[in-house]
Write a structure and sequence with these properties.
Rossmann fold, binds ligand Z5A, alpha/beta, five-stranded parallel β-sheet, 54% helix, 218 residues
Length: 218
Amino acid sequence: MRGKFITLEGGEGAGKSTQARLLAEHLRNLGHECVVTREPGGSPVAEALREVILSGAAAPLGPSAETVLFAAARIDHVVQTILPALARGAFVVCDRFTDSTRVYQGALGKVGPGLIHTLEEIATAQCRPDLTLILDLPAQTGLARAAARRAQQAADRYEAEGLAFHEGLRLAFLEIAKSEPARCKVVDAAKGPDEVAQAIWATVQALLEPAAPIAGTP
Ligand code: Z5A
């Protein structure tokens, strides 16, 4: 039986990595195999591309080329890591996936929807998330968390963007949740880590329960 593919999305400092770890712990405690992974990255070639993308080395190529690099990393990640784990029946919990491309490169990066859609089809035709948890919180709260975590280090490329950019990210993720309610669940990420984990678990539990038989079928 195919495993379940869960993605975590949201803005800066929303707690995606923290919640991916807590969710995986919970699933493993119940005896499930769980692979925690991330994007960009999650496989050897994709991790190499992560360095290229996040260092800013590819920025001079322009937003469309960067979007192609995110997609190339995703193809390797899907083929090398995600599909084999799902085929074994494992849970895959992934920190960012296609919705991040839609938001960062699409809605906020001004790459046209045609290219975003085509690359998404190429990279993920056989691999759509069963559930996407959109961790939602005010941009200012997320930025404060990210700043506290990095302490004296310089802000990264996106963190250095203004508040309006981060509010735009938040709205774009909420827009996706609204347009795909069957796949996406919005989680209030401004609460403490344990409360957020409980809300996530309540949603994930539904994936563990076998579908109810349809009335009238044997
Ligand atoms: N990107 C893209 O542009 N296009 C794409 O297609 C993809 C990605 C896939 C990857 O950055 C960048 O790539 C990302 C978008 C872009 N850039 N940005 N921004 P990354 O992997 O380096 O980092 P990130 O994904 O942005 O993660 P993050 O925002 O830095 O953090 P997070 O995973 O959401 O949060 P965290 O690490 O779990 O927690 C942050 C801090 O807050 C930490 O100190 C925690 O202890 C604390 N925390 C966590 N939860 C809580 C709660 N509930 N209360 C209080 N404090 C908390």
